[in-house]
Design a protein that fits this description.
The complex is a heterodimer of chains A (147) and B (376). Chain A has 147 residues and is mostly helical. Chain A is 50% helix and 4% strand. In chain A, strands 1-2 form a two-stranded antiparallel sheet. Chain B is α/β, with parallel strands linked by helices and 376 residues long. The chains are: A mainly alpha (147), B alpha/beta (376). At the A-B interface, α2 and α4 of A face loops of B.
Chain lengths: 147, 376
Amino acid sequence: MKTRTTLLFTLGMAAIAVLVGPASANKDPVTPQQLKAYDEVFMEQVRIGDLLFHGDAATAKKMNVVLTTTAMACAMCHPFASDTHPQAFPKYQVSMNKFATLRDMINWCIEKPNQGEKIDSDSDAMKALEAYIYWSNTGSVLVPGKY
Amino acid sequence: MSELDRERREMVAVLQRPGVHPDRSLRITRRTFIHRSCLTGAATVAQTFAWWPLLNTIDVAYAAEPPFKFAWVSDTHLYPKSVNTRFVEKVQRAAREVQAMNPPADFMIFGGDLAQLGRANELELGVELLNEVKIRKVFIPGEHDWYYDMGAKWKQLFDKPNWTFDHKGVRFVGLDTVTRGPDYWTVRKMSPEERMDHMATLDGSVAGPWAGVGRDQLDWVQKTLADWDKARPVVIFSHNPLYEYYPPWNFWVRDWREVNEVLKPYTNVTNIHGHVHQVLYNEIGSLRSIGMLATAWPWPYAPEGVPKLTKPMIRADPGDFYDGVGWSNISMKNDRIENEYIMWGRKEVFVQSPPDSSLSQPEILRPRIADQLGPY
């Protein structure tokens, strides 16, 4: 009998919880305006990353980064960010002989082929470059670890 | 269906009718045999190896003529020495090696993009470095050579951008595929620097479909070939490939249909082209095309459109500046052209197994956005 009462009580509470929702449920559905705003934040980073990736000197100067000293830009070997394979990271990266992230790889390219100055892994420039590379490869299938 | 897809299907439908192909005179040479024997173990790995009469050996020469060699160098993309010495060193190496060819080459063709930003000092540096090559040299322009001063310096140094000559039974034609780009600069009041910067960005969205031969030049080609035996070899040098591979990077000429129309009666035409910085082979109608390496840097294969007949080159190591680049040693002997890619730092130019190829990892790519200027 006692078990039955407890069961009914529990079910009742659950039903109320489902119907009423949590006490703090004061959020609204996402609006088109919000979506637009979120997208704008992202696309602005893609745009900055695109400029850095294509060797735009003004953007690099503004962000206080030296991505090259050889006049090589990322896009000279990676048009449309091709052959960057962001979908394959993290992975063992032969050229570095270590388990590496995309950010590690970006810095390797800055330091080796471009002979520029390594940028901070959490810097705005790094995030913008990463945004552009990922955006440009949108739709590529994730294959982490692939050589 | 995308525009690109539609156009490519059209190219195949129009030109790849059953029985239409370049003169069937491919033969496997010793070099290819050695190569093939290395590969027997890998023969099962998919379409990479599906096409066997390799691109190395292509018959074009006239049997009665003596054998000869020529060298191809292109895409040196020189900056002034003060900016970048790496590209300079690679031109020096190519020049040294071309000059050291034994037996010597009869001539060297430079296939365009001598300069990176079209400046006079870049072009002059190229001339100075190639002075090391004492044999005859012929030049065609690349887009990087042209759009700073619209070819003024280039013409002063190398004269006409298109030309023809006969050599030991072969008619050679130098074609200009770069100077007829649509005018994107006048209305926008661009400086020469700005115009050049847009042209120098392979994946830029402003310069548009600049690669083309043009009606006037096609008429000239038609006239040039009019007195030539239709079965005898023609070799056409151009900066861009004469078919449609990947228009967003101008890996094509926009008027490939008309080009093919003009060349159709000739059964033995070989196009040797630069611009793509990669190993390529294709046959369109009766025209075969071979893509050449750059000395400056390799481009990755485009995400789509790589000709099925291409046996891809090895994935380059970006840590080795001499990898994936070089020049070509081309010989004509007993009715055949043999193209040997001199890829520095590699014994094997072609992929040996799928992981060696950048094509083994499919990618979907988007065009860039930051340089878009909107309509005129």
